[in-house]
Amino acid sequence: MKSDDRIYLEALQVANLYYYQGLTTEQIAKEMSFSRPKVSRLLGHARSSGMVEIRIVNTRMALSPLEGAIAERFGLARVHVVPAEELLGEVVWLERVARYAANYLASLLQPGMTLGVAWGTTVSEIGNNLVPKRIPDLRIVQLNGSGNPFTPDNRYAASVLQAYANSFGAQVTLFPVPSFFDYRETKEAMWRERSVRHIIDLQQRADLYLYSIGAVDAGVPSHVYSQGYLEQRDFDELVDQNVVGDLATVFFRGDGSYDDIPLNRRASGPALSLYRDAERALCVVSGIAKVRGLYAALEAHYMTELIVDEPTARHLSRVAGVEGGVA
To answer: Does 65-320 carry CATH code 3.20.20.70?
Structure first.
């Protein structure tokens, strides 16, 4: 028997004894004549390979006081505040949020669904934490282009979406256009092409949207602001327009307005009304610098559900004046 096959069968047997029969690792080690460390390794392999799915079912759909206060204030269907000590720093906050979001996303996806994904630092980190789970007939569509003068071939977004496709066994539809066109006329011409229209139509029909909020000065830099997608004149324009963040490279102000921002006329991302009108729009946010943008997006109803780390959530509650939200 091949080594991989033997490990698979051993992990399957150990997982059955542990999760279905309720045996302890010590009992399993004795029954199978394994060492306890080997049993632990096999259980770890069973979880990381997708053989075992661990679900936490909130049977009462109860929210913590902080989650409940934010959900009520902004009219959200669900808020998930991921525990994290503030002193751990924003890199760790993002790691915990991404791990939580990866597991939660897997629980939402069903066969035949279409998932719209806006690439970026947070969404990439979520992809790195996905546990393999095959979902039949799942389709993933890219929401915004990622080409720029340095990487015009869309390779960054393709790698992000491919991580999701590999984990779920999904079909991917890429959006091979620049993040920002040099001329609005070029974008308008491209948008008339049937091949591009087909992708845009697929974006519009997605069952679930996954995205984050971009911020210029985030502790963990947003990819679009740090990797050559914008020139200095673009940054100057964002300041002049009082921009506080972006969703899939479409920028918005503190009051949620976006359609008259000049740079958006050259942006490849969908109009923000897409998220406002969506049945399920999942926004994942981590980092204090994103709070201004998050607050504006919440006020404008650009999401139905939020996953956020605890320090960022507490900062948001102070900005929003949410009673009961601050410990």
So the answer is: no
In angstroms, rounded to a whole number, what is the distance separating the alpha carbons of residues 19 and 263?
Answer: 53
Q: Where in the chain do CATH 1.10.10 domains reside? A: 3-48
Residue recorded with tokens 């399920």: 280
In CATH, the number for domain 3-48 is 1.10.10
Q: How far apart are CA 316 and CA 71, in angstroms?
A: 12
Q: What distance lies between CA 49 and its chain's CA centroid? A: 21
Please state the separation of Cα 98 from the chain's center in Å.
7
pTM: 0.82
- Name the phi and psi angles at 306, rounded to 5: -130, 135
Q: Do the Cβ atoms of 222 and 214 come closer than 8 Å?
A: yes
The per-residue DSSP string of 185-219 comes to: HHHHHHTTSHHHHHHHHHHHT-SEEEE--B-TT-S
pLDDT tens for the chain, 327 residues long, are 677 778 888 888 888 788 867 889 999 999 889 999 999 999 988 888 878 876 665 544 556 889 999 999 999 999 999 988 888 889 999 999 999 999 999 999 999 999 999 988 899 999 999 988 899 999 999 999 887 766 666 677 889 999 999 999 999 999 999 889 999 999 999 999 999 999 999 999 999 999 999 887 666 656 666 566 777 888 888 889 999 999 999 999 999 999 999 999 999 999 999 999 999 999 999 999 999 999 999 999 999 999 999 999 999 999 998 865 544
250-253 and 243-247 beta bridge pairing: antiparallel
Contact (Cβ atoms closer than 8 angstroms) between residue 294 and residue 253: no
In what helix (H) or strand (E) does residue 242 lie, and over which residues does it extend? none
286: nearest Cα among 29, 27, 36, 83:
83
